[in-house]
Amino acid sequence: MDSQRLRPLLTARGPFASVYFEDSHDTPDAEAQLELRWRAIREQLEELGADQAVTAEMERAVLDARPPVGRSGRGVIASADGVMLNEHLIRPTAAPVVRLSELPYVVPLVEHGFQDMNHLLVAVDHTGADITTHINGTERTETVDGGGYPVHKASGAETSGYGDPQLRTEEAARKNLRAVATRVEQLLGEVGPEAVFVMGEVRSRSDFVGLVPYQVQSLIDELEVGARHGGQDAETVAQAIQAALLKRRLAAIDDAAQRFSAEVGRPSGLAAEGLGPVCSGLRQGAVDTLIIGDIGEETVVSDEELTTVAPDADVLSEQGAAPARTLRADEALPMFAVSVGAALIRTDERIAPADGVGAVLRYAPTLH
Which domain of life is it from (predicted)? Predict the structure, then answer.
């Protein structure tokens, strides 16, 4: 996953309360079930010593949030600075996760994925499109009309004096779709969505996709949920988007697994595995994608300001930093990866890196 949305966590003050649980909204008693789940989580946080003000803020965030569509998980991270993250997840965790620690715990977010990925939804036909921007939990819809007409050839139309009606309608449709393509490209620069979902009848989708530049095409997923004005309900569209997001996540894992497997052990040095090599890659800003497996209870050490990390105090001292903090590796390594702009991947059975952690590198780091 793109780690950009996690960057605000880097400057927040700890300790952090990190909780993950199921908040599916697919039964008549869903609200009552949510309150019961939250009550049990709140009790665990209190037992761990969480500040009452923090748990109160988290409670408001959990109970006041809009309900999800169907089956869902929830991830909430809060600190003394307030609720830093409150997200629906594509899938819930197998069991509730509750932590109070120096750093945020983001591995379940990486594993289960944001349900509310920043994206555009483009409902297109040959007259134009309705474009909905979903950015940071808010949405706005606008209609694009390129002014091209007619887009349907009139019955019995004649060609004499006016040119071929078929050519006129095709050019009108292209004009409208070019206007949509231009607006979508503008929105990419303005709001930076991570995905563009396109719905509409097959010909309209195909013609639109053929008009956008490559950088837009690379973000597009076509949704087969009917025509622009076909009356699709919001739940059907939301389910199609969630299925596309899940497919994207699996493809990203597959890509990282292939790159890692191809490079690990090669002289090129473009992959690393194990706490020592991965920490070295993070210190040098060389990590492109951090691959998180089963790290277990492993720990790492860092300096007081959390500017560097190492597998043990001796290695950190060799780098000229004073060992000041011992941290859980499954909390520290993802956050250091966020600090260097690396992507985060939760691995599956395809790869099992040493110490439960690996990395695909931007360049071969020096050996230290």
Answer: Bacteria
